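Complex record, two chains
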Amino acid sequence: MAVLPILTYPDPRLHRKAQPVEQFDEELRRFVADLTETMYAGPGGVGIAAPQVDRLQRIVLVDVRSKLGDDCHGFLCLINPELIAWEGMAVGREGCMSVPDFTGNVIRAERIRVQAQDLDGRSRVYECAGFEARAVQHEMDHLDGFLFLDRLVSRKTDLFRRKNYQKKESKA
Amino acid sequence: MSQALLTVIGEDRPGIVAAVTQALHTADCAIGDASMMRLGGYFTIMQIIHYSRDLGTVETALDPAMKALNLRIHLDPISSAPAAADEANVRVTVYGADHAGIVASVTQALASVHFNIVELESEQSGNPERPIYVMVIQGSAPGGLAEVREVLEPLKSREAIEIGVHPIDTAMF
């Protein structure tokens, strides 16, 4: 096992799209073991995506037990994950190992259903909510070359209803 | 590089930010943290600038934009004090029928528990006959969320306002 070096923005490699995993072999297990160790060694320690360590494959790890205790799935290894359903929206402040020091507000779905393969290539479906759902969405973004910086929203716009919208409503 | 705090106020119109920042750029200034927003019918800029020459050169560079757009500009040299390490961990939302003293009473209560305001945004809204006041404060509460709730609780009935106190959780991934 080894802690792998993390790419940090503005490294252009973070914007590349990752490719699906096709070989579910011993080498993949070794990489996921290294990625797991790297995740737990990080400042947040709750999630990581393979592109963050310069491996362009669709692999995401999430473990939010340090935040939610047993009220979550525990260690999740999501290979070739797809978001198959989502509902609700919530604003939350996020930071990322690949974007040191900066944090910002991002809107994410509150509840999601994700289909993914496990280390043996078996297809599985997980339902996640709240912080766990946020973590999965944040990490899945890395697979398409997105950082949370691509999804920043203005606090003011989120918290205040626009005046002209309000006027329209009062006329109705 | 030296630092200054630049304040700009002018009647709102398109092109103020472009004119000011272009002038700063030609005077070899770099822009640091900035807050730029419309307040009432005015556009306001407060920003830290890093300048390599003297402040007089910066003022001269800003002069044409100032005259063309009728801006008021103020430059304060500042020392490069490091930013405070305490991050905002509490958000206080306040709203109610607008009346004098809401901000004063809320912020006085917050100051009494050493709440350090990092950002305050407020807006007068509603219809003119029955204006409402909405305020969002973010800051660091050294004594924690419960203490902030406790100190603000009496204001709800005294000022007839709704007050929410929420943690700002930063999800580090």
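Note: Chain B is about 30% helix and 45% strand.
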